[in-house]
Design a protein that fits this description.
Strand content: 25-35%
Mean pLDDT: 83
Radius of gyration: 25 Å
């Protein structure tokens, strides 16, 4: 096997998806703890812990105890190079999550043991399912009273329409669990509770289920209940085939508690063993690029400004798809058609950074961005000059007019709006014949507007005046004669604006208003997502 293939086989790049408050950032922390990347985990909300989550670097995240942007974290574990994409759970930031899933080879679906499958979990599951991503399920919060494991298993099968195979099974009854049983190894792991509140690795005792010490330690009643569950699962449950997992047709299920570290190590080890190495990527022309192609290629899936408030920097995160990355290499940038030197390559553990000399397919690299990169940009060796498939675009549903509160801070305001729109945090529109003292911003969720206001104030020292607009529908407009767009009829209760590529967009109150305009403007075409043909 070549060195490149060996490096690829040892890489795992995955996203963690869930409904808000299912414990996603906490699980990320514990994977880092067991990977040796951190020595003390700080739960996001635990009152008894005085640390914030390592993966939540933005001040507003620490204050609210939620993730509003995807974090990118790397660590090594038992010979594997692990790239975790910790995504926002809140539906208002689902755009960022969808983009991040483009960079993942598999996904961990986190489910609250008390609440089961929740609405945002369903949405994100279907995004993964459409991309045929292998999905691994972790039933979380087993340290609290929750629903019966069999009920949770049935709900995942019924609501998400995917076959389920529990790899680990909780040992205990009625929310009082002492450990987990591994169905593949027939091993029982029992955990000691401690006073560290999950900040340290959990001590455990493991032995074969036939070892008489297991029955003695958990008691006859729990032992008999465990044997009954195992028999039921073996008789009535699905068969395990790794091929079904890799096709996204069967989800291995694990039980545990990220807060107390219960079952986390068992999950991490089986996940790394079963999850796929970096996968081939689809190009815009429909061809498929294999990761062991010796020529370098990558795409940008995330841009983040001001990760280091002292330097006001801007980082473009790229996923390496093929070949080998070398620090300082020059590559072809498909969107500009120009060569670009990949400067100051970095890998991250939240705000801690290390300079990267070499990297391989599956790795996530942060690049210093002077303002030339955009989300979805393709980078490759000059001999390839390829372009990856386009990222999904989601039309905004909430709109507001924003302008600086202090006209003397106009430059900071404009810079902030521009940079945050390049990140994908908001969509920005302008009106013709209106200066740059105000913009129209569009978002998917209301919380995005709050984050916009917070970040402009704290990162750019620019307070804003925000006026919410009544529009809920945006459509890109195309006409054979561009001048016809300026003469739109029936737009009395709407607004004509232009996106960052100067493509015309109409904003209206509802679908009825949209149909009214369509009837009065024959020859116009309305597009739900932008197309380059809509450029005026």
């Amino acid at each position: 096997m070549s060195e490149l293939k060996e490096k690829i086989e040892k890489r795992r790049t995955f996203a963690i998806i869930s409904h808000p408050d299912a414990g996603k950032t906490t699980l990320t922390e514990k994977l880092l703890l067991y990977g040796g990347a951190i020595h003390l985990a700080g739960s996001v909300k635990a009152r008894k812990a005085n640390k914030h989550a390592v993966s939540d670097w933005m001040e507003i995240e620490k204050q609210r105890g939620i993730s509003v942007t995807s974090s990118v974290l790397q660590f090594d574990y038992q010979g594997f190079r692990v790239n975790i994409l910790d995504t926002p759970g809140h539906q208002d930031f689902s755009e960022d999550t969808y983009r991040t899933l483009m960079a993942a080879d598999s996904a961990i679906m986190l489910i609250d043991a008390a609440k089961g499958v929740e609405p945002q979990t369903k949405k994100l599951f279907w995004v993964c399912h459409r991309r045929h991503l292998p999905i691994f399920t972790f039933i979380n919060k087993l340290d609290r009273f929750g629903r019966e494991p069999l009920d949770l298993m049935e709900e995942v099968e019924k609501i998400l329409q995917i076959k389920v195979y529990p790899i680990t099974w909780p040992v205990g009854l009625d929310g009082k669990y002492k450990g987990v049983y591994n169905r593949l190894t027939r091993e029982v792991s029992l955990f000691k509770t401690d006073a560290s509140h999950g900040s340290k690795q959990l001590e455990e005792f493991s032995a074969d289920i036939d070892d008489p010490r297991i029955k003695e330690m958990i008691g006859e009643e729990l032992f008999e209940a465990l044997l009954g569950d195992i028999e039921l699962l073996d008789m009535a449950g699905e068969e395990f085939h790794i091929e079904d997992v890799l096709k996204g047709e069967l989800t291995p299920m694990f039980f545990g508690s990220a807060m107390t570290n219960f079952g986390v190590q068992e999950f991490l080890e089986k996940f790394l063993e079963m999850s796929p190495a970096p996968q081939p990527r689809t190009l815009l022309n429909g061809d498929v690029l294999e990761p062991d192609n010796p020529l370098f290629s990558a795409f940008v899936f995330k841009i983040q400004a001001n990760m280091n408030p002292a330097h006001r920097d801007r980082i473009a995160f790229m996923r390496i798809c093929s070949g080998e990355f070398d620090k300082g290499m020059t590559v072809y940038h498909a969107q500009s058609g120009k060569p670009v030197k990949l400067a100051q390559p970095q890998q991250f553990l939240a705000q801690e950074r290390t300079i990267v000399e070499k990297a391989y397919p599956g790795d996530i690299i942060g690049l210093f961005d002077p303002g030339i990169f955009g989300i979805g940009d393709s980078l490759s060796d000059e001999k390839l000059k390829l372009r990856f498939e386009d990222f999904p675009v989601f039309p905004a549903e909430i709109f507001a007019r924003v302008q600086p509160k202090d006209s003397l801070k106009r430059k900071q305001f404009e810079k902030g709006i521009l940079q945050l729109s390049q990140e994908g945090a908001v969509q920005v529109f302008t009106q013709k014949h209106v200066g740059l003292e105000s913009f129209i911003v569009g978002v998917v969720g209301q919380l995005q507007l709050e984050v916009l206001e917070y970040r402009l104030k704290n990162e750019y020292n620019a307070q804003l005046v925000m006026t919410q607009l009544p529009f809920t529908v945006a459509r890109w407009v195309y006409a054979e004669k561009p001048e016809d767009i300026e003469k739109l009829r029936g737009l009395d209760n709407g607004m004509l604006v232009y996106d960052k590529k100067d493509r015309p967009v109409i904003l209206v109150n509802n679908e009825w208003a949209l149909n009214w305009i369509l009837q009065r403007n024959p020859g116009l075409e309305f597009l739900i997502v932008p197309s380059d043909k809509a450029t005026v």
